[in-house]
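Re: [ENG-882] Designed sequences occasionally contain unexpected residues at chain ends

Forwarding the minimal case from QA. Structure tokens:
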């Protein structure tokens, strides 16, 4: 189904938080719960079904970070991730921030492609972020996920 049918709505109560989706993007439930304290969660819905999620967190007055972006496995590759990124940009612009930030693992090759195609540029690396903050080793694409690659887009 095309993104034309997609609605993105803000979560109003904690009961609506789609942890099963947020877990796809972040293996640490503790980290998720931490950024949900200050972040706002959005649901991507097709008809009444929740197929994606986004968490946006303000960083001071001039930056906002995408803390989590996820699309249900069965719905990936259909443009919903790009639609969620576009929604994050819309919220960032409406909030008047200058930069939208997203971080991902050095091993997250598809995500790095998606974000750069959407206009995000690599601006830094947090060395050993994943090895120091996550209890279990993470492997993707046969690569050890050690470092956090920081990307940003000017609004
Ligand atoms: N090389 C080049 N382009 C690539 C690519 C690659 N290896 N992998 C993906 N892409 C591109 C696609 O071609 C597409 O762009 P295009 O339409 O311009 O060709 C885009 O990335 C994917 O778009 P879309 O279909 O909107 O993505 P999605 O709905 O699958 O959502 C994620 C993307 C990352 C949100 C989704 O895969 C997901 O939930 N993954 C698990 C959770 C996760 O990793 N979250 C991010 C943590 S940082």
């Amino acid at each position: 189904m095309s993104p034309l049918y997609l609605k993105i709505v803000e979560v109003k109560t904690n009961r609506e938080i789609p942890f099963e989706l947020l877990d796809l993007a972040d293996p640490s439930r503790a980290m998720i719960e931490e950024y949900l304290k200050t972040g706002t969660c959005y649901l991507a819905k097709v008809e009444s079904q929740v197929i994606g999620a986004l968490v946006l967190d303000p960083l001071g007055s001039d930056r906002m970070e995408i803390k989590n972006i996820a699309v249900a496995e069965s719905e990936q590759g259909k443009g919903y991730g790009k639609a969620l990124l576009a929604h994050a940009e819309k919220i960032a612009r409406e909030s008047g921030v200058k930069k939208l930030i997203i971080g991902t693992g050095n091993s997250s090759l598809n995500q790095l492609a998606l974000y750069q195609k959407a206009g995000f540029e690599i601006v830094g690396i947090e060395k050993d972020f994943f090895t120091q903050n996550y209890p279990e080793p993470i492997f993707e694409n046969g690569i050890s996920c050690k470092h956090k690659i920081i990307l940003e887009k000017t609004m």
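QA comment: On inspection the terminal residues look reasonable. The longest helix spans residues 80-95. Proposing we downgrade this to a documentation issue.
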